[in-house]
Design goal:
With 323 residues, the protein is α/β, with parallel strands linked by helices. The protein has two domains: 2-120 and 262-321, Alpha-Beta Complex (Quinone Oxidoreductase, Chain A, domain 1); 125-258, Rossmann fold (3-Layer(aba) Sandwich), CATH 3.40.50. It is 30% helix and 28% strand. The protein has eleven helices and 16 strands. Strands 3, 5, 6, 7, 8, 15 and 16 form a seven-stranded mixed sheet that branches. It has a six-stranded parallel sheet with strand order 11-10-9-12-13-14, with helices on both faces. Strands 2-1-4 form a three-stranded antiparallel sheet, with no helix packed on it. β10 (167-172), α5 (175-183) and β11 form a beta-alpha-beta unit. α3 crosses α4 and α3 packs across α9. The N and C termini lie close together (12 Å). It binds NADP nicotinamide-adenine-dinucleotide phosphate.
């Protein structure tokens, strides 16, 4: 089968097509013939050499989310049969014609969704559901702020938060990106290149913030939170350290937390998948969450897909199609 490997840590040009044997599913796994895979910012960090753990080994196959059809099931798998259409979270190996997946990390392709649309879901939905709703406990009627609103994570967070009754604010790096966030249901998106989000949202206050930016956003986020507010980090692209006032945290009883999905245990991801199927899949069926795909590349053009992601020109998801 054809796969895309990281030949060595570096720029998009280190991504190359290689031939590898088709893997066999273990007893708890299914073998999926992959039709589409999502490109996520963590893939870029992995390609560069390191993301949330051990350095990337040369020959690693990137790819954290896929959709396709089941072609073989392991001896212990009862839920899935050959020909079932699934999308799945994988820790690596998604940029490939076939992938083996823990059967519990698969979800059915929502009715009426293409493989490309379904493959755009797992990484961002799992991340957002866990951080915003399970940990952050965002509830209907609360104010929610997501930075990078036009990112894959951002479009997911906006839509889920709106669907579940929150008032949503976001930041993004351009007027067109802001318009896209507002079309998805955000009450207001702030173009951080021309406006200061803290000054703009001071009058509102925020109950839950999902931050991937860090740096000088850290102290601003803390100042914006209402009493009992929650700040969840999923990255710190502008830097992980900050000068913060602990008395603010005490006075308003704030909770600051964060997490990284990829290194979590298979059991954790299975429980998360089950909760998502119960809570999020009905929202997809009800049309309360739309796929938002910016561009689809053939598998052999994974390097171009990475170039696009690093340009930050995209709004929504970048996908790979596997013919
Ligand atoms: N912890 C986890 O488990 C986990 C899982 C998945 C993803 N993530 C993280 O989530 C983030 C988004 O991932 P993705 O795959 O959705 O990538 P993506 O689509 O490339 O998103 C990155 C976004 O950050 C925005 N951005 C950059 N600087 C900004 C700033 N100063 N203020 C506001 N927005 C800014 C970019 O838009 P502009 O260029 O227009 O600003 C872009 O929309 C990444 O940092 C990724 O590592 C974490």
């Amino acid at each position: 089968m054809k796969v895309i490997v990281v030949t060595e840590p570096g720029g998009p040009e280190v991504l190359r097509v290689q031939e590898k044997p088709i893997p066999s599913p273990a007893a708890n796994q299914v073998l999926v013939r992959v039709h589409a895979a999502g490109v996520n910012r963590p893939d870029v960090f992995l390609r560069k050499g390191k993301y949330g753990g051990a350095p990337t080994q040369p020959g690693m196959v990137l790819g954290l989310e896929i959709a396709g059809e089941v072609v073989e099931v392991g001896a212990e798998v009862t839920r899935w049969q050959p020909n079932d259409a699934v999308c799945a979270l994988v820790a690596e190996g998604g940029y490939a014609e076939y992938a083996v997946v823990d059967a519990r990390h698969c979800l059915p392709v929502p009715a009426g969704w293409s493989f490309e649309e379904a493959a755009s879901l797992p990484e961002t939905v799992f991340t957002v559901w866990h951080n915003v709703f399970q940990k952050g406990q965002l509830t209907s009627g609360e104010n929610f702020l997501v930075h990078g609103g036009s990112s894959g994570i951002g479009i997911t967070a906006i839509q889920l938060a709106v669907a579940l009754g929150a008032k949503v604010f976001s930041t993004a790096g351009g007027d067109e990106k802001c318009r896209a966030c507002e079309e998805l249901g955000a009450t207001r998106c702030i173009n951080y290149k021309t406006q200061d989000f803290e000054a703009e949202l001071k009058g509102e206050g925020v109950d839950v913030i999902l931050d991937m930016i860090g740096g000088d956003y850290i102290a601003k986020n803390i100042r914006l939170l209402r009493p009992d507010g929650r700040l969840e980090f999923i990255n710190a692209m502008q830097g992980p350290t900050a000068d913060i006032n602990v008395l603010d945290i005490m006075a308003r009883r704030l909770t600051i937390s964060g997490s990284t999905l990829r290194p979590r245990s298979a059991d954790f991801k299975a429980e998360l998948a089950a909760d998502i199927e119960k809570q999020v899949w009905p929202l997809l069926a009800a049309g309360k969450f739309k796929p938002m795909i910016y561009k689809v590349f053939p598998l052999s053009e994974a390097a171009e897909a990475h170039h696009l992601m690093e340009s930050s020109a995209h709004i929504g998801k970048i996908m790979l199609r596997i013919e």
